[in-house]
Amino acid sequence: MRASQLAAALDRHPRLPLLDGPTPVQRLERLEQALGPALRGIRLYAKRDDLPGLGGGGNKLRKLEFLLGEARAQGADTFLTVGGLQSNHARLSAAAAARAGLACELFLSRQVPRADADYERNGNILLDGLFGARIHDLPAGADPLAQAQARAEQLRADGRRPYLVGSGGSSPLGCLGYARAAAELAAQEAELGIDFDLVVLPNGSAGTHAGLAAGLAAMGRSASRVKSFTVLAPAERARPATLEKTRATLDLLAPASSLEAAQIEIDGSQLGEGYGIPTEAMFAAVRLLARSEGLLIDPVYGGKAFAARE
Q: Which of 82, 109, 187, 297 could share a disulfide with 138, CB 3.0–4.6 Å?
């Protein structure tokens, strides 16, 4: 399957455009200079999925294009999803639902051991409300998906048409957003005259890795070009979950294709004490990118993946 055939397979699924075209690939020359001989001649690039303007930008928009596309195709009037209190997916779900003209309800639980006012009242939780979402603030230990499912049943009984999405939007349908990104990246490689050896990213709910790997596999390329650093679960749990999602996503694109388990590479070295808990390596990586390139990277996801020096 060529990139054009992958695009055709993706076009079979409803999509609500939320990005203003391909996100750019930028070479990080100042960072290369800062790292010096340690790079051993390696060139570094960043694909700027932080740049889309809707809701403050971020990679979750790619998944939401397909999820909201299906929601609108089904005639949904309410978008429900789950996440942590400061979830980026929740923020962008609220913004994208507003763009789509759907009501939005967020079921947010305590996933990080913090209870200070800055964490509980500012940042994404503040923006969720600004975008018009109804927030269900759940205590630690609660099952947000079960509560969202119960709310969906209540809405149906009231004559509403809810559409429910799980954590991170990382269902096989949502993962199609990053299969589409794989085709986009292949086109940019051709334009730049580059074949990237490795695509490095964080792994939370596994959707970004699964989508990229499925897209590459569908195009006949090696999914092992993608390497992720888990920021949520230990690698021994993240790896089979990512493999399962990759195969399920690939089934939506090219059912005859196969994927070997060895092609899913996940590293647990940057997880630290757990999700959302800072590490010294992460702090150093965030500072390095900011001071060499003037770029900001988030501490929970990208900062930990960027901290890896392998």
A: 109
Tokens representing residue 33 in the block? 């200079």
Alpha helix segments (H runs only) across 80-206: 88-100, 117-121, 124-130, 144-157, 172-192
> Among 15, 24, 106, 107, which Cα is nearest to 61's?
15
Q: Are 96 and 55 in contact (CB under 8 A)?
A: yes
Give CA–CA dist 172/257, Å, rounded.
15
With tokens 């596309």, the residue in question is 69
Rounded to 5 degrees, φ, ψ at 107 are -110, 105
* Active-site annotation holds for 87: yes
pLDDT for res 1? 62
Given this model, what pLDDT does residue 310 score?
59
Could you tell me which residues come within 8 angstroms of residue 83 by beta carbon, excluding any fewer than 6 positions away? 89, 90, 106, 107, 108, 109, 144, 167, 168
How far apart CA 126 and CA 113 sit, in angstroms, is 19
Average pLDDT in the chain: 94
Q: pLDDT tens digit string along 157-200?
A: 999 999 999 999 999 999 999 999 999 999 999 999 999 999 99
The helix or strand, by DSSP H or E, that contains position 229, with its residue range, turns out to be strand 226-230
